[in-house]
Amino acid sequence: MEFKALGEFSSLINDKLQSWLEQTIAHLPNFVVAIVIIIVFSILARVMSKMLRKGLHRALDSRQIADLLASIFKAVVMCTGIFIALEFLGLSGTVTSLLAGAGIVGLAIGFAFQDMTENLIAGIAMGIRKPFELGDVVQAEGVFGNVRAINLRNTIVETFFGQIEVIPNKILFRNILTNYSTIGVRRLEIPVGISYGDDPAAAAKLLTDKINECDFVIKKQETAVYVESFGDSCINMLVWFWIDYPGDTGFMVARHEAIILIKKTLEEADVLIPFPIRTLDFGAKGGEKLDTMLASQQGSGNDSQQNHNTQVKGGGHKNTVKPSTNEKSVSKMNATTLDTPSSVRGNQT
Protein backbone atom coordinates (compact mmCIF):
# COMPACT_ATOMS: atom_id res chain seq x y z
CA MET A 1 0.00 0.00 0.00
CA GLU A 2 2.82 2.34 0.88
CA PHE A 3 4.62 1.55 -2.38
CA LYS A 4 1.43 2.30 -4.28
CA ALA A 5 1.05 5.75 -2.61
CA LEU A 6 4.70 6.51 -3.22
CA GLY A 7 4.30 5.57 -6.87
CA GLU A 8 1.27 7.83 -7.25
CA PHE A 9 3.17 10.74 -5.62
CA SER A 10 6.15 10.18 -7.91
CA SER A 11 3.90 10.02 -10.92
CA LEU A 12 2.25 13.29 -9.90
CA ILE A 13 5.62 15.03 -9.59
CA ASN A 14 6.75 13.71 -12.93
CA ASP A 15 3.55 14.93 -14.56
CA LYS A 16 4.00 18.37 -13.02
CA LEU A 17 7.61 18.63 -14.07
CA GLN A 18 6.75 17.45 -17.54
CA SER A 19 3.99 20.06 -17.72
CA TRP A 20 6.40 22.78 -16.63
CA LEU A 21 8.95 21.61 -19.14
CA GLU A 22 6.41 21.64 -21.91
CA GLN A 23 5.27 25.14 -20.92
CA THR A 24 8.85 26.30 -20.75
CA ILE A 25 9.59 24.90 -24.17
CA ALA A 26 6.38 26.46 -25.48
CA HIS A 27 7.25 29.87 -24.00
CA LEU A 28 10.93 29.66 -24.83
CA PRO A 29 10.57 31.91 -27.87
CA ASN A 30 8.75 34.43 -25.68
CA PHE A 31 11.61 34.37 -23.16
CA VAL A 32 14.10 34.91 -25.95
CA VAL A 33 12.06 37.79 -27.34
CA ALA A 34 11.66 39.31 -23.85
CA ILE A 35 15.43 39.17 -23.27
CA VAL A 36 16.02 40.72 -26.68
CA ILE A 37 13.54 43.50 -25.83
CA ILE A 38 15.33 44.26 -22.57
CA ILE A 39 18.74 44.32 -24.29
CA VAL A 40 17.44 46.58 -27.06
CA PHE A 41 15.83 48.99 -24.61
CA SER A 42 18.95 49.07 -22.44
CA ILE A 43 21.13 49.96 -25.44
CA LEU A 44 18.53 52.49 -26.60
CA ALA A 45 18.32 54.05 -23.13
CA ARG A 46 22.11 54.39 -22.91
CA VAL A 47 22.48 55.97 -26.36
CA MET A 48 19.53 58.33 -25.98
CA SER A 49 20.55 59.41 -22.47
CA LYS A 50 24.04 60.29 -23.71
CA MET A 51 22.59 62.36 -26.54
CA LEU A 52 20.14 64.03 -24.16
CA ARG A 53 22.90 64.76 -21.63
CA LYS A 54 25.01 66.51 -24.26
CA GLY A 55 22.07 68.60 -25.36
CA LEU A 56 21.13 69.50 -21.77
CA HIS A 57 24.71 70.49 -20.97
CA ARG A 58 24.53 73.05 -23.76
CA ALA A 59 21.05 74.23 -22.80
CA LEU A 60 21.32 74.29 -19.00
CA ASP A 61 23.83 76.05 -16.77
CA SER A 62 23.78 73.35 -14.10
CA ARG A 63 25.48 70.07 -15.03
CA GLN A 64 23.83 68.40 -12.04
CA ILE A 65 20.35 69.16 -13.34
CA ALA A 66 21.34 68.02 -16.82
CA ASP A 67 22.76 64.73 -15.49
CA LEU A 68 19.68 64.17 -13.32
CA LEU A 69 17.27 64.69 -16.22
CA ALA A 70 19.35 62.37 -18.41
CA SER A 71 19.38 59.69 -15.69
CA ILE A 72 15.62 59.99 -15.18
CA PHE A 73 15.08 59.59 -18.92
CA LYS A 74 17.34 56.53 -19.00
CA ALA A 75 15.47 54.93 -16.08
CA VAL A 76 12.12 55.60 -17.74
CA VAL A 77 13.27 53.95 -20.98
CA MET A 78 14.62 50.92 -19.11
CA CYS A 79 11.43 50.49 -17.08
CA THR A 80 9.38 50.74 -20.28
CA GLY A 81 11.43 47.92 -21.82
CA ILE A 82 11.02 45.72 -18.72
CA PHE A 83 7.27 46.27 -18.59
CA ILE A 84 6.93 45.45 -22.30
CA ALA A 85 8.97 42.26 -21.79
CA LEU A 86 6.80 41.17 -18.85
CA GLU A 87 3.66 41.94 -20.79
CA PHE A 88 5.01 39.88 -23.70
CA LEU A 89 5.45 36.95 -21.31
CA GLY A 90 1.85 37.23 -20.17
CA LEU A 91 2.69 38.63 -16.73
CA SER A 92 0.32 41.58 -16.90
CA GLY A 93 -0.61 41.12 -13.23
CA THR A 94 3.04 41.48 -12.27
CA VAL A 95 3.28 44.72 -14.25
CA THR A 96 0.22 46.11 -12.46
CA SER A 97 1.62 45.14 -9.06
CA LEU A 98 4.97 46.75 -9.84
CA LEU A 99 3.34 49.99 -10.95
CA ALA A 100 1.14 50.11 -7.86
CA GLY A 101 4.12 49.43 -5.60
CA ALA A 102 6.21 52.10 -7.32
CA GLY A 103 3.40 54.63 -6.85
CA ILE A 104 3.08 53.86 -3.14
CA VAL A 105 6.83 54.04 -2.60
CA GLY A 106 7.05 57.34 -4.50
CA LEU A 107 4.21 58.83 -2.45
CA ALA A 108 5.85 57.78 0.82
CA ILE A 109 9.20 59.24 -0.25
CA GLY A 110 7.50 62.47 -1.29
CA PHE A 111 5.89 62.92 2.14
CA ALA A 112 9.02 61.92 4.03
CA PHE A 113 11.31 64.27 2.11
CA GLN A 114 8.83 66.99 1.24
CA ASP A 115 11.23 69.91 1.63
CA MET A 116 14.01 68.21 -0.29
CA THR A 117 11.61 67.13 -3.02
CA GLU A 118 10.23 70.68 -3.35
CA ASN A 119 13.73 72.12 -3.72
CA LEU A 120 14.60 69.42 -6.26
CA ILE A 121 11.52 70.05 -8.38
CA ALA A 122 12.05 73.83 -8.15
CA GLY A 123 15.66 73.38 -9.26
CA ILE A 124 14.61 71.31 -12.26
CA ALA A 125 11.90 73.82 -13.19
CA MET A 126 14.31 76.76 -12.95
CA GLY A 127 16.91 74.84 -14.93
CA ILE A 128 14.39 74.47 -17.75
CA ARG A 129 12.79 77.91 -17.50
CA LYS A 130 16.14 79.66 -16.77
CA PRO A 131 15.11 82.83 -14.90
CA PHE A 132 18.82 83.55 -14.42
CA GLU A 133 22.18 82.26 -15.58
CA LEU A 134 25.64 81.96 -14.10
CA GLY A 135 27.15 85.40 -13.47
CA ASP A 136 23.81 87.26 -13.42
CA VAL A 137 23.17 89.89 -10.77
CA VAL A 138 20.05 88.86 -8.85
CA GLN A 139 18.20 90.00 -5.75
CA ALA A 140 15.79 87.85 -3.74
CA GLU A 141 14.82 87.60 -0.09
CA GLY A 142 17.40 90.18 0.98
CA VAL A 143 20.26 88.54 -0.95
CA PHE A 144 21.90 90.72 -3.64
CA GLY A 145 24.86 89.47 -5.66
CA ASN A 146 26.20 87.36 -8.53
CA VAL A 147 25.04 83.79 -9.25
CA ARG A 148 28.01 81.43 -8.91
CA ALA A 149 26.40 77.96 -9.08
CA ILE A 150 22.99 76.41 -9.74
CA ASN A 151 22.58 73.06 -8.01
CA LEU A 152 19.72 70.60 -7.72
CA ARG A 153 18.51 71.80 -4.33
CA ASN A 154 20.04 75.27 -3.94
CA THR A 155 21.66 78.19 -5.72
CA ILE A 156 24.98 79.77 -4.67
CA VAL A 157 25.09 83.59 -4.74
CA GLU A 158 28.17 85.69 -3.96
CA THR A 159 27.08 89.00 -2.45
CA PHE A 160 28.79 92.32 -3.12
CA PHE A 161 30.12 92.18 0.44
CA GLY A 162 32.16 89.10 -0.47
CA GLN A 163 29.95 86.56 1.30
CA ILE A 164 28.58 83.28 -0.08
CA GLU A 165 24.82 82.82 0.34
CA VAL A 166 23.18 79.41 -0.19
CA ILE A 167 19.55 79.94 -1.22
CA PRO A 168 17.11 76.99 -1.41
CA ASN A 169 15.63 76.73 -4.87
CA LYS A 170 12.05 76.79 -3.61
CA ILE A 171 12.61 80.33 -2.26
CA LEU A 172 13.79 81.56 -5.65
CA PHE A 173 10.98 79.70 -7.39
CA ARG A 174 8.09 80.89 -5.20
CA ASN A 175 9.11 84.46 -4.31
CA ILE A 176 9.87 87.63 -6.23
CA LEU A 177 13.23 87.47 -8.01
CA THR A 178 14.89 90.54 -9.57
CA ASN A 179 17.41 89.86 -12.32
CA TYR A 180 19.44 93.00 -13.10
CA SER A 181 21.35 91.34 -15.94
CA THR A 182 18.43 90.35 -18.19
CA ILE A 183 17.92 93.75 -19.85
CA GLY A 184 21.52 94.93 -19.41
CA VAL A 185 20.67 98.51 -18.37
CA ARG A 186 19.76 100.20 -15.12
CA ARG A 187 18.34 103.59 -14.23
CA LEU A 188 19.80 105.70 -11.42
CA GLU A 189 17.68 108.09 -9.37
CA ILE A 190 19.55 110.76 -7.39
CA PRO A 191 17.53 113.13 -5.17
CA VAL A 192 18.69 116.76 -4.77
CA GLY A 193 17.09 119.86 -3.26
CA ILE A 194 17.42 123.51 -4.27
CA SER A 195 16.31 126.59 -2.39
CA TYR A 196 12.96 128.27 -2.96
CA GLY A 197 14.76 131.32 -4.27
CA ASP A 198 16.16 129.48 -7.31
CA ASP A 199 14.42 128.56 -10.55
CA PRO A 200 13.75 124.78 -10.65
CA ALA A 201 13.24 124.73 -14.44
CA ALA A 202 16.61 126.36 -15.09
CA ALA A 203 18.31 124.05 -12.59
CA ALA A 204 16.71 120.99 -14.22
CA LYS A 205 17.88 122.06 -17.69
CA LEU A 206 21.39 122.71 -16.41
CA LEU A 207 21.67 119.34 -14.63
CA THR A 208 20.29 117.43 -17.62
CA ASP A 209 22.90 118.90 -19.96
CA LYS A 210 25.74 118.22 -17.51
CA ILE A 211 24.71 114.62 -16.78
CA ASN A 212 24.56 113.86 -20.52
CA GLU A 213 28.21 114.87 -20.83
CA CYS A 214 29.25 111.80 -18.80
CA ASP A 215 30.59 108.88 -20.84
CA PHE A 216 28.79 106.22 -18.80
CA VAL A 217 25.32 107.71 -19.45
CA ILE A 218 23.30 105.93 -22.16
CA LYS A 219 19.87 106.71 -23.61
CA LYS A 220 20.71 110.39 -23.28
CA GLN A 221 17.36 111.40 -24.73
CA GLU A 222 15.70 109.88 -21.62
CA THR A 223 17.91 111.73 -19.12
CA ALA A 224 15.63 114.03 -17.14
CA VAL A 225 15.30 116.03 -13.93
CA TYR A 226 11.85 116.15 -12.34
CA VAL A 227 10.51 118.30 -9.53
CA GLU A 228 9.24 115.82 -6.97
CA SER A 229 7.72 117.81 -4.10
CA PHE A 230 7.90 120.84 -1.81
CA GLY A 231 10.16 120.11 1.12
CA ASP A 232 10.49 121.84 4.49
CA SER A 233 13.62 123.70 3.43
CA CYS A 234 13.90 123.17 -0.32
CA ILE A 235 12.27 122.04 -3.55
CA ASN A 236 12.94 118.31 -3.93
CA MET A 237 14.08 117.15 -7.37
CA LEU A 238 14.99 113.77 -8.91
CA VAL A 239 17.82 113.29 -11.42
CA TRP A 240 17.20 110.28 -13.71
CA PHE A 241 19.65 108.70 -16.14
CA TRP A 242 20.51 105.26 -17.57
CA ILE A 243 23.74 103.26 -17.45
CA ASP A 244 24.89 99.87 -18.76
CA TYR A 245 24.52 97.29 -15.99
CA PRO A 246 26.64 95.35 -15.47
CA GLY A 247 29.06 97.49 -17.42
CA ASP A 248 32.54 98.97 -17.43
CA THR A 249 31.41 101.69 -15.01
CA GLY A 250 29.90 100.11 -11.94
CA PHE A 251 26.73 101.26 -10.25
CA MET A 252 28.51 102.73 -7.23
CA VAL A 253 31.11 104.55 -9.36
CA ALA A 254 28.45 106.04 -11.64
CA ARG A 255 26.37 107.26 -8.71
CA HIS A 256 29.47 108.67 -6.97
CA GLU A 257 30.57 110.67 -10.02
CA ALA A 258 27.02 111.88 -10.70
CA ILE A 259 26.55 113.23 -7.16
CA ILE A 260 29.87 115.08 -7.29
CA LEU A 261 28.97 116.51 -10.71
CA ILE A 262 25.54 117.66 -9.49
CA LYS A 263 27.01 119.48 -6.49
CA LYS A 264 29.75 121.11 -8.53
CA THR A 265 27.33 122.20 -11.27
CA LEU A 266 24.89 123.80 -8.83
CA GLU A 267 27.69 125.61 -6.99
CA GLU A 268 29.09 127.04 -10.22
CA ALA A 269 25.62 128.23 -11.24
CA ASP A 270 25.11 129.83 -7.80
CA VAL A 271 22.15 127.53 -7.08
CA LEU A 272 21.86 126.89 -3.37
CA ILE A 273 21.50 123.40 -1.87
CA PRO A 274 20.11 124.60 1.47
CA PHE A 275 20.65 123.27 4.93
CA PRO A 276 17.54 122.48 6.95
CA ILE A 277 15.81 125.80 7.74
CA ARG A 278 13.18 126.50 10.43
CA THR A 279 11.07 129.67 10.19
CA LEU A 280 9.37 130.95 13.37
CA ASP A 281 6.06 132.62 12.48
CA PHE A 282 4.46 134.86 15.13
CA GLY A 283 0.90 135.88 14.42
CA ALA A 284 -2.30 134.11 13.47
CA LYS A 285 -1.95 134.76 9.74
CA GLY A 286 1.75 134.66 9.26
CA GLY A 287 2.52 138.16 10.06
CA GLU A 288 5.07 139.45 12.50
CA LYS A 289 8.82 139.16 12.34
CA LEU A 290 10.85 138.28 15.40
CA ASP A 291 12.45 141.73 15.82
CA THR A 292 9.06 143.49 15.51
CA MET A 293 7.50 141.19 18.07
CA LEU A 294 10.43 141.64 20.47
CA ALA A 295 10.27 145.43 20.11
CA SER A 296 6.55 145.48 20.89
CA GLN A 297 7.02 143.15 23.83
CA GLN A 298 9.93 145.28 25.11
CA GLY A 299 7.83 148.44 24.82
CA SER A 300 4.95 146.98 26.78
CA GLY A 301 7.39 145.76 29.40
CA ASN A 302 8.92 149.25 29.81
CA ASP A 303 5.46 150.83 30.16
CA SER A 304 4.49 148.41 32.90
CA GLN A 305 7.79 149.06 34.71
CA GLN A 306 7.23 152.85 34.59
CA ASN A 307 3.73 152.47 35.98
CA HIS A 308 5.08 150.31 38.74
CA ASN A 309 7.75 152.89 39.68
CA THR A 310 5.12 155.66 39.71
CA GLN A 311 2.94 153.67 42.07
CA VAL A 312 5.86 153.02 44.41
CA LYS A 313 6.85 156.70 44.57
CA GLY A 314 3.28 157.89 45.10
CA GLY A 315 2.46 155.42 47.83
CA GLY A 316 5.57 156.06 49.88
CA HIS A 317 6.05 152.45 50.67
CA LYS A 318 7.69 149.47 48.92
CA ASN A 319 5.66 146.81 47.22
CA THR A 320 7.04 143.57 45.91
CA VAL A 321 5.76 143.24 42.37
CA LYS A 322 6.40 140.04 40.35
CA PRO A 323 7.36 140.47 36.73
CA SER A 324 4.50 140.02 34.31
CA THR A 325 4.16 137.07 31.98
CA ASN A 326 5.10 139.25 29.01
CA GLU A 327 8.31 140.32 30.75
CA LYS A 328 9.23 136.68 31.37
CA SER A 329 8.63 135.77 27.77
CA VAL A 330 10.66 138.75 26.55
CA SER A 331 13.52 137.82 28.87
CA LYS A 332 13.51 134.25 27.63
CA MET A 333 13.39 135.36 24.01
CA ASN A 334 16.24 137.80 24.56
CA ALA A 335 18.30 135.08 26.18
CA THR A 336 17.48 132.72 23.34
CA THR A 337 18.38 135.34 20.77
CA LEU A 338 21.71 136.05 22.45
CA ASP A 339 22.56 132.33 22.60
CA THR A 340 21.54 131.65 18.98
CA PRO A 341 24.26 131.91 16.29
CA SER A 342 23.98 134.79 13.89
CA SER A 343 23.25 132.47 10.91
CA VAL A 344 20.28 130.92 12.72
CA ARG A 345 18.95 134.40 13.79
CA GLY A 346 19.16 135.47 10.19
CA ASN A 347 17.07 132.49 9.07
CA GLN A 348 14.57 133.10 11.86
CA THR A 349 14.20 136.70 10.77
Put the structure in a nutshell.
The protein is an alpha+beta fold. Helix content is 59%, strand content 15%. The N and C termini lie far apart (138 Å).
Task: Report on this structure.
With 349 residues, the chain is of the alpha+beta class. 59% of the residues lie in helices and 15% in strands. The chain contains ten helices and nine strands. It has helices at residues 2-59, 63-88, 92-112, 114-129, 169-174, 200-211, 251-268, 290-315, 325-339, 342-348, and strands at 137-140, 143-150, 154-159, 164-168, 178-179, 185-194, 217-218, 224-230, 235-244. Strand 8 (224-230) and strand 9 (235-244) form a beta hairpin. The N and C termini lie far apart (138 Å).
- Subunit organisation of the chains: single chain
Tell me, rounded to a whole number, the average pLDDT. Answer: 77
Please state the overall shape, judged from the principal axes of the Cα atoms.
Answer: elongated
Structural class: alpha+beta
**Uncertain runs with pLDDT below 50, 5 residues or more?**
312-349
Q: Count the strands?
A: 9
Largest sheet: 5 strands, antiparallel
Instruction: Quote the beta fraction.
Output: 15-25%
Q: How much helix, percentage-wise, in residues?
A: 55-70%
**Rg, alpha carbons:** 44 Å
Order of helices and strands: HHHHEEEEHEEHEEEHHHH
Number of helices: 10
Terminal CA distance reads 138 Å
The spatial strand order of the largest sheet comes to 4-3-2-1-5
